[in-house]
Queue: 2 jobs
Job 1
Amino acid sequence: EDQVTQSPEALRLQEGESSSLNCSYTVSGLRGLFWYRQDPGKGPEFLFTLYSAGEEKEKERLKATLTKKESFLHITAPKPEDSATYLCAVQPLISNFGNEKLTFGTGTRLTIIP
Amino acid sequence: KAGVTQTPRYLIKTRGQQVTLSCSPISGHRSVSWYQQTPGQGLQFLFEYFSETQRNKGNFPGRFSGRQFSNSRSEMNVSTLELGDSALYLCASSRGDTYYEQYFGPGTRLTVT
């Protein structure tokens, strides 16, 4: 069974203090790993998709990286508006078509203190 | 391009009743997936529809069902509501082809009393 574990559960940073969030996964073949941001009471907002080990993607102060066992979401010089829960999800490689199921981790709740 | 929309946004039901939630995907997206989100279990996959056919199903009881219409809009139904069904129900749409980026709607907050 696919499993996703995110750490830490919660993280408080001072504004400008860089850090990383971890997502470790177990899946029988990885089609894609996804990062989402979720604000309270809202649906998850898509951030990145990573498909293969060694891949990196960046968006503003966020950078996502992928290895064969885990993914990191690096946040550089964060601002208070980066406060949210960050979710990681994996999609298994079962077939080339027809498997939309995502298995999510429980998220990291990030708080940036001004 | 308009995002995923879900109606209603909030719902209060009594135990034993049934409920129907609606989801309109992004224009051009043919796949709609449904998830349940609770504080204890996080986001859990319910089922996915593509071209009016259920393509994937999670581990939920048969009280949870869904359907998709020819315009890709989808509905989810929960019969015989239980207190434990209180959750945020999210739908996500995607193109449904090789690239699986899913885009979520704002969710429907269901409270069962």
Job 2
Amino acid sequence: SQQGEEDPQALSIQEGENATMNCSYKTSINNLQWYRQNSGRGLVHLILIRSNEREKHSGRLRVTLDTSKKSSSLLITASRAADTASYFCATDNNNDMRFGAGTRLTVKP
Amino acid sequence: ETGVTQTPRHLVMGMTNKKSLKCEQHLGHNAMYWYKQSAKKPLELMFVYNFKEQTENNSVPSRFSPECPNSSHLFLHLHTLQPEDSALYLCASSQALAGNEQFFGPGTRLTVL
């Protein structure tokens, strides 16, 4: 069954703008991961944040985790047209990893 | 390339056919997964194997039959499928089950006529 739920379902921005995607979940987790998927392809891992961490950075990506609110956010700064893809959060709870339905991000050149 | 390959990339089959999907990982991982991705639905975990042993069968119909002969190879045998089984089938692997990123293959786009 689905665990994480991304918000919004779709997001359209101009190149250079920042994109923020949110993920909410319902049960306790060991870690939360964000993945990216280009149309019709496999998922690519972006970043993993553990339940005892609050923020992680990787290049233009910034992920936050608030376990009290059971939510996470993914920020992509200075977006590029190549960032156009679907982004998924996945919650990991005792070897049980569940994906959300994803946010479809479109970055217009 | 993620180190996980899947064949075939596209498959069209009739409801009475028997076919198999193949996944191979070149990463030395111990865990492998099958997922189903349908349009506008969350990724659905189907099967999990850890050290060749099946650890999860997520209420998948018996017309889907997995096989894991070794830690590097994973198959999904298909028979008497239904049109609603048409989807992108993704294979993934990870070093271990807990707390690890998963590496995904490119998927097999399956169409059941």
